[in-house]
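Table S2 (continued). Query chain:
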Amino acid sequence: MGKTVFVKIVTDPDVDLAKCVVGLACAAQAIDDGHDVSVFFAANGVKMLQKSYFKMLEDTLPMPAGMLSSMMNKVTSGSSELYVSTGSHAANGVTKENADEMLLEGYSDWMTWSGPPGVIQLSVASDVQLVY
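Corresponding output:
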């Protein structure tokens, strides 16, 4: 039987991009392994959800073509819950009003805007917590 895994991505990808990518990879692997995965993007980790930033990463990372998108698609479609920090998005120029132009395609289908209450909810409901 799978565990409930909570992955929190909070690292600024401009500071430690490898940590953010490993966080995505671990969340995707946990989904593949049959675990119930919830993810929370907060602090500057929310940059990973910005359309232009993500495209820049895909174009410059020394990874096989499409690998980063594949991991993100797995996380956005396979997570039981995916939350983002409303305040962290705002600090990075993203609001509910401009999200359509700023965020990855389909964000409204998988993303829940939240703050500390969402972090606490996902944390206490999990068996395992991974922070990147």
